[in-house]
Amino acid sequence: MKRAFTVLLSAVMMASLFHPASALPAEPTEAGMVFGGQWAPANNTSAQVTELGDLKTVVEVFTATWCTNCVDVEHALEDVQAAGLLQQYHVHRSIGETQDPFGTDELDQRWKDKYGHDSPPTVVLNGSMKKIGSVADDGTLENEFTNLANTDLDLGNGTTSFSWTPTGAQSGTVAWNLDIGEQVLEGHDLHVTVWWVEAHADFEEGTNGLGTYPHIVHAIVDLGDALNGTASLTVPEAHDGSDMEVHLIYELSPLEMMVNPAPPLVDDDEAMPWVSAWSSMAVAVAVAFTRRPPHLQQD
Q1: Which CATH class name applies to 29-254?
Q2: I need a surface site. Which of 111, 161, 191, 226 has the fewest CB within 10 A?
Q3: How far is Cα 40 from Cα 154, in angstroms, rounded to an integer?
Q4: At CA 263, angle to CA 257 and CA 269, rounded to 5?
């Protein structure tokens, strides 16, 4: 009997070790919304007017050059971006980081303050929905990101205008005009921002095997809360090449944001909520085998 119990308990525990990670569904961020995404190469003049309803979904990706799980997420996002549904912005881990050269402490801290969970891979869509990990909750990652990207922000019938004019090798002037209904802005702080993005940069030492890393956010510049204006800006140096881009992004933050406790610092595929369930089962099996019927109990 004891031998049978030992074999069964071992089987239960071994099964728990090889059980696949559970998918985590996307959840609201309670951080407001992020929208916009009009952009231009930093060395080119550009002027654009876009209907708010035609804007692509702004997707922020918290990533790292050592994060192997991030590769599947980023490949799925590239497929959805190729379909014209979204635009990616990759924020690389920096605080306490020793292997990734692309992040900054300022951007890392902004992520922690705004979205909380700071383990890659984490994806935030339009600042309002957060997907943690690399396990699909809706068939495939591509399908899940497609459905999330099709979520309507209800921005109304306004427009956003953006122009960029280089004034030197490392400088230029940005202009903007946001025509949006007051009902959208109500209860929020508006921040007009410029995001400096490097299209691609090489890092062969990256241990996740990508080698070339796209959509790298270098810095975010806050231009204030005016619905229209201009600003003279300095273009940051690219890690390599001359592919720096200037992006116009609007951020709406709730006037009274709830303070939530920080989530556990666990990686998605290493997070194992199923272990407790299997452990409970093992305990139940142990109890069942150790309880003897009354007629077999010794005095």
Answers
A1: alpha beta
A2: 226
A3: 26
A4: 135
* Amino acid at the residue 204: E
Query: Which among 130, 104, 105, 127 is positioned nearest to 117, based on CA atoms?
Result: 130
Q: What does the domain layout of the chain look like in residue ranges?
A: 29-254
| Single-letter code of the amino acid located at 225 | D
R_g over Cα of the chain = 24
CA dihedral defined by 64, 67, 68, 73, rounded to 10 degrees?
-60
Q: What is the phi-psi region of residue 160: left when phi exceeds 0, alpha when psi lies from -120 to 50, beta otherwise?
A: beta
Structure tokens at 68: 């192997």
Indicate yes or no: pTM above 0.90: no
How many residues does this entry show for the chain? 299
User: 191-223 burial by CB neighbour count: b if 16+ within 10 A, else e?
Assistant: bbbbbbbbeebebeebebebeebbbbbbebeeb
Largest CA distance in the chain: 96
